[in-house]
Amino acid sequence: MFIKINDLCFSYKNSKSNIIENFDLEIQKGHIVSILGESGSGKSTVLRLLAGLETPKSGSIHIDEHVVTDDRHFILPEKRGIGMVFQDYALFPHMTVIDNIKFGLKGFSKKEKETRVNEVLDLINMMHYKKRYPHELSGGQQQRISLARALAPKPSLLLLDEPFSNLDTDLQIKIRNELRNIIKATGTTSIFVTHDREDSRAIADRIITLRDGAAHEWESLCTTHYSEMKQLETTK
Predict the structure, then answer these.
(1) Is the pLDDT of residue 73 over 80?
(2) Helix (H) or strand (E) holding 8
(3) Residue 23 pairs with which residues in a beta bridge?
(4) Rounded distance, CA 162 to CA 224, Å?
(5) Any idea where the ABC transporter domain is (predicted)?
(6) Domain 3-81+157-235 falls in which CATH fold?
């Protein structure tokens, strides 16, 4: 199994109870899993624990058979090879699209950076916007640039925190379909958290609900998405 989370527990300082309690989750390589939960349920905390931005009280996280967190190990966030897309996109306003994407390409040569930037811009169909600044882009375009920046270093795992919260309803419906296609095209294992069940159903291969800090299987959508893809192929 590509991602294995076992008995993860976490509480914030000055809290008397755990917000994450014996959380278990296994994810196959290349799958998209949604963690569905109400505000304050701890779903974003799970992402922070995976990314290394928080330290669990107990439990373990394995990514691609490597231990990133347990009672003896803690791999620093920058060493985990994880990409993250935030609610507010977190684009640098003083940087062009090109420079925003290049920012995460540490250790790449100048030529490698140029090649990779062009690859991801082509993937998200925004090659013509590469010299623009974030304020010159729509909300949907900013989200795609944020996604491209997260995918550019070829992360082993992609985390998305409420990726549609800043989009209006019509754009949200359009973008979530594009998002699934882009992620699937890269084969990147992904986890995204949301409070919107329709977002989960549109994008995820599996939906996990978070209740009382623990994971509960809600629905597997692999067969549904596969059938939809085959139907699209036959109608082309």
Answers:
(1) yes
(2) strand 3-10
(3) 8
(4) 23
(5) 3-234
(6) Rossmann fold (3.40.50)
Residue range 103-120, pLDDT digits in tens: 989 889 999 999 999 999
What values do phi and psi take at 116, rounded to 5?
-70, -40
**CA 93 remoteness from chain centre:** 22
Question: In the beta sheet, which residues pair with residue 211?
Answer: 214
CB atoms within 10 A of CB 232: 9
Q: Where are the domains of the chain?
A: 3-81+157-235, 92-154
d(CA 35, CA 27): 12
CB 52 within 8 A of CB 75: yes
Q: How far apart are CA 108 and CA 2, in angstroms?
A: 26
Burial class (CB in 10 A: 0-12, 13-18, 19+), 70: middle
Q: What is the DSSP string of 158-207?
A: EEEESTTTTS-HHHHHHHHHHHHHHHHHHT-EEEEEES-HHHHHHH-SEE
The model scores a pTM over 0.90:
no
Nearest to 182 by CA among 36, 3, 46, 32: 32
How would DSSP label each residue in 76-94? -GGGS-EEEE-TT----TT
Residue 74 φ/ψ, nearest 5 degrees: -150, 105
Q: Which range among 22-36, 73-87, 149-163, 208-222 shows the weakest confidence by mean pLDDT?
A: 208-222
Tell me the pLDDT band of 222, cut-offs 50, 70 and 90: low
Residue type, position 77, single letter:
P
